[in-house]
Hints:
By secondary structure, chain A is α+β, with helices and mostly antiparallel strands. Chain A is built from 24 helices and 17 strands. In chain A, the strands form four sheets. In chain A, strands 2-1-6-3-4-5 form a six-stranded mixed sheet, sandwiched between helices. A six-stranded mixed sheet of chain A has the order 8-7-12-9-10-11. By secondary structure, chain B is of the alpha+beta class. The A-B interface holds A 70-72, 99, 106, 145, 148-149, 180-182, 207-212, 215, 219, 222-223, 226, 229-230, 236, 240, 284-295, 297, 299, 311-313 and B 9, 12-16, 19-20, 22-23, 26-33, 40, 42-47, 104, 123-124, 126-127.
Amino acid sequence: MIKGGYQGKILRVNLTEHEVKEEELREDWAKKFIGGRGYGTRIIYDEVDPKVDPLSPENKVVIATGPLDGTTAPSSGRVMVITKGPLTGTIACSNAGGYFGPMLKRAGFDMIILEGKSKEPVYLWINKGKVEIRDAKHLWGKLVDESDRLMREETHPEAETMEIGPAGEKESLLANVMFNGHRASGRTGVGAVVGSKNLKGIVVRGNLSIKAGDPDKFAEAVKVTREILAQNPVAGGGLPMYGTAVLVNIINSVGSFPTRNAQDSYFPEAEKISGETLRARNLVRNEGCSDCPIACGRVTEIKEGKYKGEHGGGPEYESVWSFGAMCGISDLDAVLMANYLCDRYGIDTISAGSTVACAMELYEKGYMPAKDAPFPLTFGSSDALVESIRAMGEQKDEFGKLLSQGSYRLGEHYGHPELSMSVKKQEFPAYDPRGIKGMGLQYATSNRGGCHVRGYMTAVEVLSPGLDRLAYEGKAAPNKFLQDLTAALDSSGICLFTTFGLQAKDLAQLYSSVTGVDCDEAEYLKIGERIWNMERLFNLKAGFSRKDDTLPSRILNEPIKSGPSKGEIEELDKMLDEYYSLRGWDKNGVPTKNKLKELDIEDLL
Amino acid sequence: MKVLMLDPVKCTGCRACMDACSFQKTGVFNPFDSRIKIFTFLEDLTFIPTVCTQCEKPYCAEVCPTAALVKNPETGIVEFIKDKCIGCKQCVVACPWGSIKMDHSGKEIIKCDNCFGDPACTKVCKPEAITYVEVEDVVSFKQRGVAQAYREIGKEMAKGVNP
């Protein structure tokens, strides 16, 4: 019996018919897939044909919370957007912080299922369980922060919002879904799917209580986990002090910081865009998402130059990298400006920066004719970066439209898709697999394409001593472990960053005490493994196979030119077979019947 | 005598204090039942905590027709005696800060009582934006912060002034 953590209701919104209905949360699914990413994916698996065009009305979107949302569990306010992703064509789940998740539960719903397509732009106003579908024609075209403000003005100033920006409306494959005007479900182009349904946003408010199944055990688990995080040098030290950009110097110092579209992997000017420099030059304050003791969020301001006075949230490490080193740029103000613009248009910063970098290489190598570029697209040009982001956000010309489709389609257009630093067409983030071997295995096998938050191997290969980052042996097992653990914690509604301090047993304890469902470390990881295999099955049915579990040819064949990882390439094949075998999959990466039986998901075949 | 000290500059807006407060008081999580409240100004990402400051001249107690609110001179807390309350809400009207309020049901008065000396909100506030300190230290801590900033200048200026 589930005794707490869930509100027990799912809201289904048919945008074609403008119909809403409430459904019961299925207890059997909640036990097998928890909530959030796991439960949401189970819904998509059940209701969406894996071969569907992601931008068609037949695709659906689940906005999901986990059982820990809205409690004092550390960093527990995550909200997830689950759909078939248009950038990759894979299953997609993109996760954000802010305050929306807990508020959705206070309004009475664990999840929202969005289906169909509205004729006209609309937004949803969910107020204490009552749902209104409202006209949003006057909001269409508005930037993200403006949309948040206007929707709250029209509903309640203290409501929490989800919204898309112009990028989502125009179905950019890099479009994100934003929450509270500045937190991003950034990856896999989920914003385009919401835009394709003519849904501008969701405003939510409610006053229901959320209870813990076993309040005493839960209070103890919260106390223990918060104490661990406070004492942890990363979660209680580096992250609050410098934000995620604390990684700039660390990753550059191991020569795994892809530079100028990964033509190199060491950026001599990294110090100028580091977390330390960001703190000294631009930090206004820290921001914590719901119930987060880490507060890695940066509130920043540009204090000089032509963007003086511009302010906003971020940038994160990945954004500093994509706009900085990847584009050969060490001008931190330009990086900040590009980051603010992405948040306003609603664009994923990782893919955006990497796409500009790809455009720069295409331009410099002469593959993109000069007439196609509205300005010189040279590496290191701050103006080229900022104006490219604007073009991408506004899509007023061919150049902007091309960039808005991401680096793979851009490269393909000019006959050089290999210059896209992507996996399954999604740009990989700020860790070069040539210098951190396990990250390559993680990118290649991630169920949503190039991504660092499916199994963060950098934690065990670089940040904590233990594994040799350049070795191939022994990388498959921790990769599998981290993938499974992340799938379970994403589904619980807690932030990945808690794992800098917390172990699987701690997370299992939080999950178990909030729901009242018995669950130890092994069971928690098994749930994660079940979710991972379900995502894999979806992707196989969508047409993906072993040949797609690969990396850009540059990463596999071109040695790093300089720095501490000079001469390194990534030999993915040395890890992939071992990984498949550890997963209980056949040589083609297909889960065996036995494995699915063991995980109790044979019914998904 | 100890009081809750708020430091808006340190607040990261995570609102864990609100969840912790409601859990302490009601056993469930509901920020509408929290005695402390964090205001979030998204336009410039500023976060402002507010809570009952246990007034020396508590208007809420003065207007209460049933003496359900009483200032305890020993602890400094304006105590709420639930059994005496008739739900007239005059205290809500009288409080200049909005620090005494109705719970999520809209029926019951709730207010901060510093958890009688062991406030739950402070325990989840990692950045120490809410602390529970001796009343005479409140100003002293603030002054110390300013003095720290002045320290180096003071050292520099003292050169040549003192023999």
